[in-house]
Design brief:
Layout (H helix, E strand, L loop, with lengths): L4 H25 L3 H4 L4 E7 L4 E4 L4 H4 L2 H12 L8 E4 L11 E10 L2 E11 L28 E5 L2 E2 L1 H10 L3 H29 L1 H24 L4 E9 L10 E10 L2 E5 L15 H13 L10 H5 L1 E4 L17 H19 L13 E8 L5 E8 L27 H7 L2 E8 L15 E7 L3 E7 L20 E4 L6 E3 L2 E7 L3 E5 L14 H9 L5 H8 L3 E2 L4 E2 L1 H15 L13
Parallel strand pairs: 10-11
Antiparallel strand pairs: 1-2, 1-5, 3-4, 3-6, 4-5, 6-7, 8-9, 9-10, 12-13, 12-16, 14-15, 15-20, 16-19, 17-18, 17-20, 21-22
């Protein structure tokens, strides 16, 4: 069948709108704040063989992993897939990523022929294991982390697998919430089926089959055309994770090499550290997802994210490393490593494309979980993810208060947090003098203070960038580090970046994000931008002078031009040719 470009565009938009409608369905019908408010879920549409065709506007690190999970389902059940079947999987050693992320797939049949799958993945607030939330970074093997679900049928020919549902309900602390969230995923799959059948009725069976493949081929052509415009070569970058939460004196190496030739690109993770004791190890599928997303972000914005994109990007990682774990590695907190791999890929891409790629972000979202029981032994689990400071870019400052680009998640409403959990949020504010300085400064980080109101709970935190700060580029300085503090206003105790501990009634936990790295020479920053930052309380008067050489009269809020010129000249004389020490690739 000949591909008509107008029909292709209409079909593509119709198919992508189905994936978006699936996402809206989950958001409207889910039970938990981590899905409804954080939006830690994703939706997609694949062809009959599990090739990703369309994705919803959700999380890149989920979507790039869907093909691996569905491949595991097909390997287990090919020849035994029927109308009305629904499949579930979460086991990272059978196609999943980590146990809280539960995949649900529904095959879609037309006239007895399997034509597509509706695909969803949601972060469940609990899947059992040794701690509430199933997300601790100090687990040391997968068997501690909760219920492992290999590829199984959740429904068979339209009939629920009651044994499977009972098994799930029995092994989680909050079964109503978890099964409610899973039913939200089922609702999204049913929406996908209904709207896809309407699409087939509109376009016809043969045309639908043809254009599903055409959308993939279209994405591949655009991807390869975009890659041809990038410079050929080999570019490597090294970054370090502070520790794994177990061996606290042992930093963990991430090493990425990008090899670009013609219309293809390879992202190779050889040289990264061996897998670790703590639960920050990653599956290869997760490593692929972050690599796809990073390369995709330097290409044209209108390239569809599907199998066609993946075909042009080869991702490799040696087994037994933090980027491609093997049994019995724990991985509940693998998101930490995944986001940090994103910064590592960007470090390599910054060498390839210095005018397109910014400095390091805050390192991805911090995971915070508070779980326990009230006086009536009723369980509660609060899951929150915090991120918000991008690195400075070659053309603009890093943004603040915005999700990490690999997450595309939202911040939970304080009112809802307090209404649904035994918590008070005492502060939620940007922190001055924490962004990496540069001609374009990094994003300004924020802090949140949570006061616990029940008698006792378990607090879990996975964070990083305490010792290895977000790198700056081309003269920009690193962002300030993250910080965890218990009871900051009374007997303040600085906590480790990764922790599992007990909270008591009235305890206050504060998390401070790291600042984004700066880009370029700080003494080249426009003084008017420095003044604006001071007025917005992003930068103090003292740091404006010390870091940027800008003197501001706080009575008139005017820049003292002569004093600024003298101070900047003094900075240059003191530091020689480089006005401030440059962050080298090795230091980063």
């Amino acid at each position: 069948m000949k591909t008509d470009p107008v029909t292709l565009e209409l079909f593509k938009n119709a198919l992508f709108s189905i994936a978006d409608e699936m996402a809206v369905t989950i958001c409207r019908t889910t039970y938990s704040g981590v899905l409804r408010d954080n939006m830690d879920f994703s939706t997609a549409f694949t062809d009959a063989d599990g090739k990703l065709v369309a994705q919803g506007l959700t999380i890149p690190l989920h979507l790039g992993s869907i093909p691996t999970a569905l491949e595991a389902v097909l390997a287990e059940f090919e020849g035994d897939i029927h109308p009305g079947d629904v499949f579930v999987i979460n086991d990272p050693y059978h196609g999943g990523m980590h146990l809280p992320d539960v995949f649900i797939f529904k095959p879609i049949f037309v006239d007895g022929e399997r034509l597509a799958f509706g695909a969803t993945i949601s972060h469940q607030a609990d899947v059992g294991g040794r701690v509430p939330g199933s997300n601790a970074s100090d687990s040391t093997e997968i068997f501690q982390e909760g219920l492992r679900i290999p590829p199984l049928k959740l429904y068979e020919r339209g009939k629920p697998n009651e044994t499977m549902w009972t098994m799930i309900e029995t092994n989680v602390r909050i079964p109503v919430q978890v099964t409610g969230d899973m039913r939200a995923q089922l609702s999204a799959c049913n929406i996908a089926e209904r709207q896809f059948l309407e699409l087939v009725e509109r376009f016809g069976l043969e045309t639908t089959r043809h254009y599903m493949m055409a959308v993939i081929e279209y994405a591949e052509r655009l991807t390869r055309a975009g890659l041809r415009e990038l410079p050929d070569g080999e570019y490597s970058f090294e970054d370090w994770i502070d520790d794994d939460g177990i061996d606290r004196d042992q930093p963990i190496r991430l090493f990425c090499t990008i090899r670009k030739r013609g219309d293809a690109i390879q992202v190779d993770w050889d040289g990264s550290a061996p897998q670790v004791k703590g639960a920050i190890n990653c599956t290869l599928s997760f490593t692929k997802a972050v690599s796809y997303a990073a390369v995709r972000s330097v290409l044209a914005f209108d390239i569809p994210c599907n199998e066609g994109l993946f075909r042009a990007i080869d991702v490799t990682a040696p087994p037994g490393t933090v980027t491609n774990m093997v049994l019995p590695a724990a991985c509940a907190a693998r998101g930490l490593t995944g986001f940090r791999m994103g910064d590592c890929v960007y470090g390599a891409l910054a060498k390839m494309l210095p005018d397109k790629v910014g400095a390091a972000s805050d390192g991805g979202n911090t995971g915070i979980t508070v779980g326990g029981y009230d006086d009536d032994r009723k369980p509660f689990i609060f899951v929150d993810f915090a991120c918000g400071s991008w690195g400075g870019r070659p053309w603009a400052d890093g943004v603040q208060g915005n999700s990490n680009m690999f997450a595309n998640m939202a911040s939970q409403s304080i009112e809802l947090i307090e209404a649904e959990n035994p918590l008070q949020v005492l502060s939620y504010e940007l922190i001055p003098d924490r962004a990496g300085i540069g001609e374009y400064r990094g994003g300004v980080p924020y802090r949140r203070d949570y006061r616990f109101l029940e008698k006792e709970a378990v607090l879990q935190v996975r964070s990083d960038r305490r010792r290895i700060r977000p790198y700056g580029l081309y003269g920009g300085r690193p962002g300030k580090p993250s910080c965890n503090i218990l009871n900051p206003d009374r007997n303040a105790q600085v906590l480790d970046s990764k922790l599992t501990m007990t909270l008591g009634q009235g305890d206050v936990f504060r998390h401070e994000l790291p600042g984004g790295g700066g880009w370029g020479d700080p003494l080249k920053r426009d003084p008017q931008k420095v003044l604006k930052d001071v007025r917005n309380e992003f930068v103090s008067l003292e740091r404006a002078a010390k870091d940027y050489g800008v003197v501001i009269n706080d009575a008139t809020w005017q820049i003292d031009e002569a004093a600024t010129t003298r101070l900047r000249e003094a900075h240059r004389e003191k530091h020689g040719a480089e006005p401030l020490p440059t962050v080298t690739w090795e230091d980063a």
